[in-house]
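Q: Hi! First time asking for a complex rather than a single chain. Here are the components, and I think there are two in total. Is that enough to go on?
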Amino acid sequence: MTTPPPLLDSAVPVGSRAGRAFGWRRPAALALPALAVLAALLAPLLAPADPAQLTLDQLRPPSAAHLLGTDALGRDVLSRLLFALRTDLLLMVFAAGLPMLLGTLIGAVAGYRGGVLDAALRWAADIFQALPVYVLLIAFVFVLGPGTSSLLVAFSVLGWVVYARIIRTEVRRVRERDYVSAGYLLGLSHTAVLFRHVLPNALRQSLVYLATDMGMALQGIAVLSFFGLGVKAGTPELGTMVAEAQVFLRSHWWLAAFPGLTIVILGSSIAALGDRLGDRGESG
Amino acid sequence: MTSYPLLEVDGLRVALQRRGTAPTLLDGLSFAVAAGQCLGIVGESGCGKSLTLRATMGLLPAGVERTGGQIRLSHQADAAPTAVPAGQAAGRGLAMVFQDSHASLDPTTRVGAFVTDIVRRRTGASRAAARRRAVELLAAVGVPDPALRFHSYPHELSGGMRQRVAIALALATDPRVLLCDEPTTALDVTLQAEILLLLDAARAERGLGMVFVSHDIAVIRQIADVVAVMYAGQIIEAGPVADVLDRPRHPYTRALIDAVPTLEGPIGRFRPIAGAPARPGRLHPLLPLQGSLRPPGRGLLGRRARHRRARRRAPIGLHPLLLRPLAQRPLALRPRAGGHMSALIRVHSLVVDHPVRAGFLRRRRLRAVDGVDLELGRGEILGLVGESGCGKSTLARAIVGLATPTAGGVLLDGAPVPRRRPPGMRRRIQMIYQDPGSSLDPRRTVSQTLAEPLRRTVPAEKIAHRARELLEMVGLGERQAHALPRELSGGQRQRVAIARALAVEPEVLVADEAVAALDASVAGAVLNLLSDLRERLGLSVLFISHDLATVRGLCDRVAVMYLGSIVEEGPVARVFARPGHPYTRVLLDAVPSRDRRRSGTAGPGPGGLGGVGGVGRLGGEPPSPLDVPPGCRFHPRCPRAAARCGTSEPSEERRDGQRVWCHFAWRHEL
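A: Yes, that's all I need. Here is the structure of the assembled complex.
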């Protein structure tokens, strides 16, 4: 074929199949988490009622007065949902962020120094990764006692390994680049070289994982709270809401359905955002 | 003989397919190759040489399409060539040899199995017959012990051996035309000579047509009969090699030839081409060529990138730039050949070992540098040459303090340097690296990169001014100050790397293959810069290179390294004119000449490459540093070796400032 391509016909989609697929995935993956964050931030303004206010309007189905109905104590489900988003998103950021901070520090130092330190990290990481995470998570919170701080400790102790692994590999790759040894020759200390030149160029992969991990953390928090191991009783939280709705599952579907759906959709769209970041990283 | 050409390319046009626009990458190329003929294509990086081969082969990358012209291929002897449709691989009749032999072989398949598979697909031969054929092919391309190598994986072979296998693979398809894309660029000169001989022999024996793409005019001179010079996606001059390279008519061809350093003729400055090459499709490539060869200041950064940055940042007023010496240090006089001068760096019996894993739980020490003594004078440029793997880079890293000596040591200004050098001492010796893509932090702009080392010595308000001075010193301007490394060309990045090194006012620059990744023209400009900096700042330079012609043009003295040891050292003019060591002789003979075919050449035409390699061709490849031969370490490959070379280590012989470690120093010329 020697016909020249249609130059002016911009309606003809040009580009890879993947590129076209992202056309819809990007807004969806971005918009849902953004919407959730916005709703959580504006919860005091958006919520039609006080989430802790008990009323005699108990177990009402969704209506104009209570858009998502009311629970067994007569509290407005929509208001509780909005405030639960605050709790869960905040917890999510720390439950994924703290392990990342810890893992990044350990992985960066081990990867940069190499030798015994690096061997020790690999050994520790092998052990941690062989353990069943959820079982340990639950065991940890049992031992430390329920509550947000023990939740975060448990997530950090178990979650740092993957970050340390990713960062270590990236640091070892970047360490071989010439600008790293150039920085050392210019008089920077190894610490300065590590934090100014190596780490910034090694973070990308673990940021991608962070997004995926946040989705997992969100669901993990909900699961632990469902078992009563999460936040303090009475605090609006998605997992707790589902747990409280258990007894009414057959008769009052809205109690479990809305927080449940929120967990699933929000968790997977945040994880999808991570995937999307990863794909973009690969294509350059 | 057939009267038809084997391959005809007629008005080939290739364009990048992007939303709405279609920038032309190849603009109406036409050429033809007859049986037994070799067409060489030369040009700088980005001119479309490799793309031409890919388009011919039908292997264009995604998003790039053939938009016009015809490719005709003759499939049988005495048959008119038939057209190959666009968007289809040419298949039978064409085969290609690539630059990177790592990428062209399957890492998980034994090389013999790979060749056998290709033979079977092509001929439908039985498994046993195909195996026999594969072993024959491996033997034909000079793989020693082909029956044994048959079972090797690509990573177990050296670079030269892999390239031989890649050629065997190409020949296994029984092609009519062989397309070679810089097949020797990644190899040492000694291996390059061998591979060129091999390709030329294959062409002569099989009556192959050949298209040989290279940026190296000297290589083209050795192997091609006809040459085409490319610039910005067009052929601007073509004809028989002797005509085009001896009497170029196009000014660009002239400039391209002049930019290549040679081993012959007077030593002078390198002669780079001014400006940067026009990009295909961006400008009409021939227009700027009529005037000053190239558009001034164009193509350095994409137009769009500059506009984007201009929007992002407010313009900064240009300060009047005055060039002044970096430090109040007395300028050293240029050393005379053989003259005595105070040594700034003295390396004494330096040994550097690398631990390597040798099987399960077994560790051995690889002796990369084995007892080297070397001096670098103030204001001197010392060249260090040798094949890859000889320990040049390890020696350099030990000198700057990135590798720890196992024994011996380095004296800086007469004082021994400690194992861990304090920052102040590190700054006195700076390094320029080979890979321009890795020597700058990709996340920092040029001015940020330069500001960092300045922060310790220069008051905050003067940093920006000093950074501009440094940029000016290496020939860059305000425009590049806010660019990220990926927005700069390779030559510009090397200049920034030099500016960064100069920021700490060093006394010594160690340049490890600093121009090896650059085009001859761009390299010439960087080398002139190094030479100027030495004159102006009294810098000493240790220049590590495998390119002997460059070393001859730049350095005062040269040291030749083989398998961890220095075998010869002395003033450049003497060593190159009258090498004392057979290895130096062999290295010099292996360098292809820019201006003539090697002596012994039968002239253009099939099989006319007898002279590459010259007097002493090297047998085999350098032995591993894990297994150093006894006696003189060069003796297994030495054309002059005698019995005692295998038993006793040669001692130093001196003559006119030249030092040679050989039993037959200066007596190897037969």
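A: Residues 1-24 of chain A have pLDDT under 50 and may be disordered. Let me know if you'd like any chain examined more closely.
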